[in-house]
Amino acid sequence: MRKILFAILLSVMTLSAHARTDYKVSLIDTGALYSEYCDSLLSFRLSVSSSLDRLYVYMFSKTDKRIIIEWENVRLQGSKIAFSTDYQFEVNRPHDEETVLPREFAHKCILNRSALPIVDKKKIKKQGYDIIYFRLPIRVGDEIYDISTEWKVEKEEK
Question: 47 phi and psi, to 5 degrees?
């Protein structure tokens, strides 16, 4: 009996290990694809989890001034976001601003607040890709910048 259970467990683990799919996220800018957004203030890139329910944002400050990220005003697919660290009953509470110091990295793992997947797997399967609309509002000194971007998500070629 133990041998049968062990064999079943081993086969399930093997199948789940092979079922993982990796996805590539590229910035769409005037028809060209780039791996990250860059300007004189900051650079950032996005990646998605293999289950397509989490979006990872990696940022680097390129200026000598502090950058304030207004997380409450960040939009993903037109909706407000939730952080992966939020508890279920805290999802609708306002998010605090984050300060990125000069020449430093910052990162966040975010979810779609509407509890819908960030990327549509059916769309990727049908047309080969899906589009993420991501808006990142920041403040540098008294200046406010609203960075709106489109990102293409597709299966990564192996």
Answer: -145, 155
Q: Does the structural domain 21-155 have CATH classification 2.30.30? A: no
Question: Which amino acid is located at 36 in the chain?
Answer: E
Distance separating alpha carbons of residues 109 and 83, to the nearest angstrom: 6
Cβ count within 10 A of residue 37: 18
Amino acid 54 reads R
Question: Domain limits of the chain?
Answer: 21-155
| Spatial contact of 124 and 154, defined as CB atoms under 8 Å apart | yes
What tens-digit pLDDT sequence spans the chain (158 residues)?
655 544 555 555 544 444 567 888 988 886 677 788 999 999 999 998 888 888 899 999 999 999 999 998 999 888 888 777 776 666 567 788 999 999 999 999 987 766 677 888 889 889 999 999 999 999 998 999 999 999 999 988 76
